[in-house]
Specification:
single chain; alpha+beta; Phosphorylase Kinase, domain 1; four-stranded antiparallel β-sheet; 2 helices; about 30% strand; globular
């Protein structure tokens, strides 16, 4: 992503879920945005997917997000990412 789009993103620099500091916007899709982040307690680099705010009111989309996270968390393959955590922040970010 361009540095100007990252600088304008209100989530860059924010810690979500009490554990993940969002460092850079690395991708945008139909359902949400993906950030390069640090899992602060472990000093580990991770990716964090955040659902688009306009989709948070659509319970069917939110349910699908949770279903996909649960299903993906059960996968164990060298060509897929590992899901280590998912949920909603105190202020409703998913």
């Amino acid at each position: 992503m361009s540095s100007s789009s990252a600088q304008q993103d209100p989530l860059v620099g924010r810690t979500v879920g009490g554990s993940y500091t969002l460092q850079e916007l690395i991708g945008v899709g139909g359902m949400g945005r993906v950030y390069l982040a640090e899992q602060t307690a472990l000093g580990r680099t991770v990716a964090v997917k955040v659902i688009h705010p306009h989709l948070l009111g659509d319970e069917q989309t939110v349910a699908r997000f949770y279903t996909e996270a649960r299903a993906s968390s059960r996968l164990n393959h060298p060509n897929s990412v590992s899901i280590i955590d998912f949920g909603r922040t105190d202020d409703g970010v998913l």
